[in-house]
Design goal:
alpha/beta, eight-stranded mixed beta sheet, 251 residues, 9 helices
């Protein structure tokens, strides 16, 4: 099976290298890349189109543009997989844009080059079958399990609702920590160092990913509002306690 990876940013290159340990993988980028690929081969757009499976590793905001381009050129029976951090929006775009003869499988590897630096064993990946046979879905589910991943089948809506309060809040808090310009310290606690790890993992990702996570997931606005209310409540309890000597356990 020839697998093409469209997009060779930090995650695209990492995912191409990972898939390349099991498949014949070809990587394509719209912008020239001067990289030394491991476990995959750089290819042209035409070479990408010859692949049986095309994995989209592009930003969420770029999915529609890429889908419109591919829709004109993909041969029938090609399987297109996305890797977006939201599922409702990209799968709706792919279903609407790609011809009926093109199969679609939604995926979201819930990790990246930083969080998987010690390997992918045990890390979660979400599978969202869209326009695909059960045979194809089962093949990829079993493949990911054999790679050591923890596979979770979810609908697009289930994924987005849950991811808003897992991945979405992590990236939001990580960016806030980045604005504080925190430094390591010889007396740093384990908890503090974990906060620095969150900042590193999230701020190493492109700013566009953060924007797209907050914009295209229909549940992240509610997450931000819940977070703001929780922050305000804690400040109010703290202010009452320090100013008036109220019992801090009473809210």
């Amino acid at each position: 099976m020839r697998v093409g990876v469209y997009g060779l940013g930090r995650f695209g290159r990492f995912w191409a290298e990972t898939l390349g340990t099991r498949f014949e993988v070809y990587g394509y980028s719209r912008t020239p890349k001067t990289i030394a690929p491991r476990h995959f081969t750089l290819t042209t757009y035409e070479g990408l189109l010859s692949c049986d499976v095309i994995v989209l590793c592009v930003s969420i905001s770029a999915v529609e543009e890429v889908a419109r381009s591919l829709a004109r050129d993909l041969p029938p029976s090609t399987l297109v997989m996305d890797t977006c951090s939201v599922k409702t929006y990209p799968l709706e775009v792919l279903s609407r844009t790609l011809p009926d003869g093109i199969d679609i499988l939604g995926t979201h590897p819930m990790f990246g080059p930083d969080s998987a630096r010690d390997g992918i064993a045990g890390l979660p990946i979400v599978l969202t079958p869209c326009r695909v046979t059960e045979e194809q879905s089962s093949f990829w589910e079993e493949t990911f399990r054999e790679m050591g991943l923890s596979v979770h089948r979810m609908t697009a809506e289930e994924h987005d609702r849950e991811a808003a309060y897992t991945q979405g809040i992590t990236h939001f808090v990580g960016r806030v920590l980045g604005e504080l310009h925190l430094e390591d310290s010889p007396i740093a606690t384990v908890g503090y160092r974990k906060l620095l790890e969150i900042r590193e993992q999230t701020c190493n990702d492109p700013w566009q990913l953060f924007l797209d996570l907050q914009h295209y997931n229909p549940y992240t606005r509610r997450m931000r509002e819940d977070l703001a209310r929780a922050f305000t409540r804690i400040l109010a309890v703290l202010d009452r306690t320090l100013d008036g000597g109220a019992d801090p356990s009473v809210r």
